[in-house]
Amino acid sequence: MFTITNEIYQDANKAREHLEAIHWPHGPVCPHCRNNHPDRITKLEGKSTRPGVYKCKDCRKPFSVTVGTVFERSHIPLNKWVLASHLMASSKKGMSAHQLHRMLGVTYKTA
Known about the structure:
The chain is built from three helices and three strands. A hairpin with a 5-residue loop joins β2 and β3.
């Protein structure tokens, strides 16, 4: 059931964790070389690293759940992307950009 107060629609980190659970049900998979061995993928942690970044030990490239999706390199917070995709998918007749702009609190051009 859809509730706008769900934490995946309010917090970008919870939205990222939600997308990781959907996209990688058995653990992270490198989008560059398709490596999925848990001992060959490391989660990067530190002050200078944003949350949710992994590094493949085979191809040595960093990646996150948004690589290769429309969410990649977006300045819009991930929780707004998740909410927008849910609203558009659950709408019976579709949704206008103006309605999306009003509901999400983003500019019309962004919507």
